[in-house]
Amino acid sequence: MLARGTDLLAAEQAAGTAIAAFTVYTLESIRAVVDAAESCERPVLMSVGASSYRVTGARELAAAALAAAESASVQVGVHLDHCTDEAEITRAVELGYSSVMYDGSALPFDENVERTAAVVARAHAEGVWVEGELGALAGDEDTSTGVAAREMTNPLQAAEFALRTGVDAMAVAVGTVHGLSAVPMLVDLNRLAAIAAGTSTPLVLHGASGLPDNNLTAAVGAGVVKVNVNAELRNAHRAALAEALSQDGDDLLRIQRTAVAAMTTVAAEKITTLSREEQPT
Q: Following DSSP, what letter does each residue of 231-243 receive, concatenated?
């Protein structure tokens, strides 16, 4: 069923767990994420953003994700991730997305606040919840670049940002990067705890692919309620395709099943990790 409203975020926050948000690019990845959520009997989010539909088309991929969410036996949200285009956000709302993210992290603080608050007002009028971002992660969501962390979130600014914008969730920069880094990156748990102490707004961790499980679960214990995963699912997809294509024959159904199975395994492992109730270390 398509998950609308912020009840999922509130439930995860109350339980000390986090919901996984997987970036999807294809029908195979959509199927894998829903299969994993159903097998774990846990809710999940599918991130379908501008980068996801450069090949498939926006309406087509969004329609597939929304249809899969509606028919799922668990709650599945369809989320617009890392959007800087307010017209794109409007289109996502019109298409039926359950949540959107306005990414004003590259803007001066006051402008980020102003634009994010405007998006919140418009989206809330349509029953869509909003994620904002303060602080900046280096790297590319769609490739693994081996970069270092960039601008960390200021805990005092985070509290002000949450209050002034009215966002339903806030992405923070606490040491991770987009993609898989050549140098292992870890969450700055002290900074994360300081941010969480200043606001009750659910916190979001981007760039979680490649984090050790103990660091990831500690981040959840410190206040993270939503965790974005992209690179690990993408790499499982690519590896499965390479393996399937190395075999003789042109059975496309076999190739598709191999890819779905590989991504389902990775997604289920991440969902399970995030459902553990652990305290920060």
A: HHHHHHHHHHHHH
d(Cα 27, Cα 149) in Å, to the nearest integer? 32
Is 251 labeled as catalytic in the residue annotation?
A: no
CA-CA distance, 144 to 14, in Å (whole number)? 33
Coil, helix or strand for 169? strand
Q: What is the pTM of this model?
A: 0.90
More confident residue, 149 or 95: 95
Specify the number of domains making up the chain. 1
Q: Is residue 58 part of a domain?
A: yes
Burial of 128 by CB count in 10 Å (0-12 exposed, 13-18 middle, 19+ buried)? buried
CB contact at 8 A, 132 and 168: no
Task: Tell me the residue range of the domain where 208 lies.
Answer: 7-274
Which tens digits make up the pLDDT trace of 23-73? 999 999 999 999 999 999 999 999 998 778 888 888 999 999 999 999 999
Catalytic residue among 35, 81, 103, 168: 81
